Write the structure tokens for this entry.
Amino acid sequence: MHILIIGNMGYIGPEVSQHLRRTFPDAHISGYDTALFADRLTCEGPIPEIVLNKQYFGDVRYFPPSLLEGVDAVIYLAAISNDPMGKKFGKVTDEVNRKSCIKIAQFSAIAGVTHFAFASSCSVYGCASDHPLTEYDVTNPLTVYARSKIEAEIELKELHSDRMFISCLRFATACGFSKRLRLDLVLNDFVASALQFREIRVLSDGSPWRPLIDTRDMARIFEWAITRSGEKFVIVNAGSDENNYTVKQLAEAVASQIPGTQVDVNHDAPPDKRSYRVDFSYLSRIAKNYVPQISLAHSITSLIDGITECNLAQIPVFSARLTRLNTLSDLIATGKLGPELYWSTKNVSQNKKSFENVSYNQ
């Protein structure tokens, strides 16, 4: 089996790469990434990509179809990956999250790829209702990021291929430790704040719902998506019914595991419309052996242990360094990155297509 992970050098990619290597020890696994966050390593030690057979460096907006030769499965993780970045880089968000995904899916179908797995998001639901939302409920994307995901799903559904299985995985909010940790995710942020300051500030009134999924469970669901049979095209909520929580409940769960932590809820905050409970029963029916197994308590424990082991809470700047929008803003401010998020350093040609054939072999 030859697996290509596109966007593998972010928060989720390291866990996906390592899980697939453990599961398929003889597979040829390669990655493709523009390396915006490559140096945002959580701890010292070998880079996560050491488990890959080959790492390509390039921008998905100029993806070379030749890299798909002999590939059996493609995992599309590449994304401008949250609401603040989507708001600031709206055009790029659409180009990376939707346009490039569709283009690469089309290339994949032509190349004979048999499985294409797209990392979508439960954020497409947008606003809470009086019941947990299923794949058949109306979507209501409230942000540029969420719109890019639902529009990509729609166009993937229109991509007809007799051979290729397409899976749109509407993941719950990611959480848990990673070798490239992100602290602009709700649970991760709460744990980091509690460890560093013994305080969690909930900027909303705490009532919005957030389903969660640990990165290790995400990796298992990707395994299912690139090996599954059945329907050629599926959209599936990826998470578990047990892991639907309000933001306040998440803060309290973190505080219960880190003694002395105070939770400060902003009861005067305006309503946060980004609130949704999600029904994950379809996943349990079609992929019963891959349903999430990691509880909220275990995700919190993994974050506490990882941050403590890496001594991050003792580093004053660690929160800013592991926040994606701050990383991009710093790269732009220092002239290393252009406003459209193309590299502009002396080490990389201004010609965007120069990325295409840069790689390293393991």
User: Anything to note?
Assistant: The chain has one domain: 2-175+212-241+273-294+327-361.
